[in-house]
Amino acid sequence: MVRDFSGVEIHVVPIDVNNLEFVAWSDASFANAEEYKSQGGYLICATERGLRLNQWARLSPLRWRSFKQERQVASTLGAELLTLSRTIAETKWVRSIFTEAVNGSYTLESDKERSSRTPITVAIDSRPAFDHLNGQVMSIRDKRLAIEMLLVRQDVERENVHVRWMPTDHMVVDGLTKIGAPMNSLRKILREGKMILVEKDEVMKWIGKCSRKK
After folding, report:
1. Does residue 127 sit within a domain?
2. pTM of structure
3. I want to staple 21 with a disulfide (CB 3.0 to 4.6 A). Which of 8, 57, 119, 195 is the partner?
4. Domain count for the chain
């Protein structure tokens, strides 16, 4: 696959700092790594604020990773939640670096107030994780995971973080967690530098064209 798509490039597109926010895709695959641990993956991009408003928006990939989770979990929900928590933390770190870069009077003490002015949107394809996050299902037996959920909820409530659910076939980083998963949408984003967070046939047609191009 690397040979077939050796011409892939990463494009950084111009985005007005006053219209900039961050978007991340978070995904996990349960117990498919060594020692029955789960594989997580994320992609963090700078984007235009129209993306959160269901509009096509330009974006630039900034940080990405595929990783084996540090501990075993008992369910897909646990794997998705651990990756979501890490993705939010990594995106907040990127946001803080950006905030320091554009504010000459930046200090660590002022980081929370300053950085939270820039929105973060995180897309996941796990409906159970999304429902738990929105309070529709309250019981989590694993108490360590319950703590992770509380931390994620705190970020959503206090740090200007928004979590969106997307269907699996719209998940950009599916190929970072599963062997053989399609990577059309990821290559498409890298090549064209744009995306939309809606469930539409228009998106699938846009992604599908990638399989016929190199």
Report:
1. yes
2. 0.87
3. 119
4. 1
| SS3 per residue for the chain | CCCCCCCCCCCCCCCCHHHEEEEEEEEEECCCCHHHCCEEEEEEEEEEHHHHHCCCEEEEEEEEEEEECCCCCCCHHHHHHHHHHHHHHHHHHHHHHHHHHHCCCCCHHHHHHHHCCCCEEEEECCHHHHHHHCCCCCCCCCHHHHHHHHHHHHHHHHCCEEEEECCHHHCCCHHHCCCCCCCHHHHHHHHHCEECCCCCHHHHHHHHHHHHCC
Judge whether 84 lies within some domain: yes
Establish if 4 belongs to a structural domain: no
- Domain range for residue 176? 17-212
pLDDT in tens, the chain (214 residues): 778 888 888 888 999 999 999 999 999 988 887 778 888 999 999 999 999 998 999 999 999 999 888 888 778 888 888 899 999 999 999 999 999 999 989 999 999 899 999 999 999 998 888 888 887 555 666 677 778 888 888 888 899 999 999 888 888 898 888 888 878 888 888 888 888 888 777 777 777 754 444 3
Tokens of 175: 């190929």
